[in-house]
Amino acid sequence: MPLLNVPAGSRRFRGMVGTGGIGCGSFFLVEGNETLGREESRAGRFLDRRDYCKLHIICHCVKALLGEGFEVSPIGRVGRDADGARLTTEMAAAGLDTRFVQAVDAVPTLFSFCYLYPDGAGGNLTTRDSASGTVDAAAMRAAEPVLESLGRAGIALAAPEVPLAARRTLLELAGRHGMFTAASFTRAEMDQVRSSGVLELVNLCALNLEEAAAAAGIAHDRAHPGETVRRAVEALSRAFPGMHLSVTAGKTGSWSWDGRDLVFDPAAALRVEGTAGAGDAHLAGVLAGLSASLALAEAQQVGTITAGASVTSPHTIHPALSAELLRSTCAVRPATSPRVAALLDTANG
């Protein structure tokens, strides 16, 4: 059953096709908070946490929020290995349409190694020579019949961890069929993003604070996140006047820009078990909110609530995500739109 009660007749969108990384990973807790040196050896231990890559997290959460009446089709590649088989099986079990998830030979499934310090800081290392790295324009064109059938009733999502050229192809095809386009990008690839002109193809760009500053070509003022967002929005809205923004800043909160108003939404005060995947859960909530015909600022609240629920689990996909968990997360917010509260209050438990 869907976690949000969205009557089919009131939906703005009825499906989503997305590309991005499909893979898994592990978490390693190092001893001590001192930053690792280039040639240092240090002890630590693996944590009992399940890690998933971006496309899988977003697609899973969107499907959980919107249910059977909303079709979700990931486009990607996994290795012909145990990890690839397990992930494909899990996606299918969650109700995702996996016909565009291809198993390939000679390269492994995408794998991520996350290292954490006791104070909660950390980093992430991801394999470059993976099946996700082989995703190409042909994989996007194979899904074009679905893009065409959805048309203006569909979302096309371009997420990191597959080549930018493939993501661009998806956005171009989606635009040709009148779809709503959403995308996110990593800080490391932002120079390429800025020079490629791919942002001209994006209706909604979802970024964290560092990524937003890099996309706008401005310095990130860590002491004044709101000022960083304001300047980033100012620069990006001049360059791409048709693009809306969702910018997250962890426990500080997030901002939405709909081309007219910049709106701040505070994060919920919750006990955090793990923050990995929270940004992807946030984007999933925003897309689900937009699919429910909410304005962007209200959809941003759904994103905040979904991300808040996500961090109560150490896993990047919360195994016990439920309507009750969403409602309890909403209950600790200072304020929630009546339309958003209604989606949760009448949802299935």
Give the strand order of the largest sheet, numbering strands 1, 2, ... along the chain.
6-5-1-9-10-11-12-13-14
Beta content comes to 15-25%
Distance between the termini: 8 Å
Could you give the order of the helices and strands? EEEEHEHEEEHHEHEHEHHEEEHHHH
The averaged pLDDT comes out at 94
DSSP helix fraction: 25-40%
Strands, total number: 14
What structural class do you assign from the helix and strand content?
Answer: alpha/beta
What does this structure look like?
- With 349 residues, the chain is α/β, with parallel strands linked by helices.
- The chain has helices at 54-66, 82-93, 137-142, 144-150, 164-176, 190-196, 209-216, 225-239, 278-291, 296-310, 323-331, 338-345, and strands at 15-19, 23-30, 44-46, 51-52, 71-79, 101-104, 110-116, 122-126, 154-158, 180-183, 204-208, 244-248, 254-257, 262-265.
- Strand 12 (244-248) and strand 13 form a beta hairpin.
- Helix 1 (54-66) packs parallel to helix 9, helix 7 crosses helix 8 and helix 9 (278-291) packs antiparallel against helix 10 (296-310).
- The longest helix is centred in the middle third of the chain and has 15 residues, at 225-239.
- The N and C termini lie close together (8 Å).
Key structural traits:
14 strands, globular, alpha/beta, single chain, 12 helices, nine-stranded mixed sheet, 20% strand, 349 residues, five-stranded mixed sheet
Q: Secondary-structure blueprint of this entry?
A:
Layout: E1 15-19, E2 23-30, E3 44-46, E4 51-52, H1 54-66, E5 71-79, H2 82-93, E6 101-104, E7 110-116, E8 122-126, H3 137-142, H4 144-150, E9 154-158, H5 164-176, E10 180-183, H6 190-196, E11 204-208, H7 209-216, H8 225-239, E12 244-248, E13 254-257, E14 262-265, H9 278-291, H10 296-310, H11 323-331, H12 338-345
Helix pairs in contact: 1-9, 6-7, 7-8, 9-10, 10-11
